[in-house]
Write a structure and sequence with these properties.
Layout: E1 5-8, E2 11-14, H1 39-49, H2 54-75, H3 82-86, H4 95-102
Antiparallel strand pairs: 1-2
Helix pairs in contact: 1-2
């Protein structure tokens, strides 16, 4: 089963992949759009990163924004208390004994 075209948010996306388990494998969608950007900021990013094209700079900026959002979400999770961390491991767990056992014999 395959689909030739599908409308998604007003954009036509060509899909030439067979449906597997209800999902299309490895579909990459590229979108052309017009946006107003701070030209000086874009040029500074290109200079600082050594990127040659505006497309590369915008893609880089989007990747960095995604990474920053993931880090914010990761570190925004509730932290464990000292008591919770203290009880997280078995009291009989001996890391040094395990390391000694992993040393190669001479």
């Amino acid at each position: 089963m395959s689909r030739a075209f599908e409308r998604d948010a007003g954009l036509r996306v060509r899909e030439n992949y067979a449906l597997r388990n209800g999902q299309y494998p490895h579909i990459i969608t590229r979108v052309k759009t017009t946006v107003e950007l701070d030209e000086q900021k874009l040029l500074r990013v290109m200079e600082l990163t050594g990127l040659k094209t505006r497309k590369e700079a915008i893609d880089y900026a989007l990747s960095q924004a995604e990474r920053a959002a993931k880090m914010t979400r990761l570190f925004g999770r509730p932290r464990r208390t000292k008591e919770e961390l203290k009880n997280a491991l078995d009291p009989d767990y001996d890391l040094m004994a395990l390391r000694e056992g992993d040393k190669p014999q001479k």
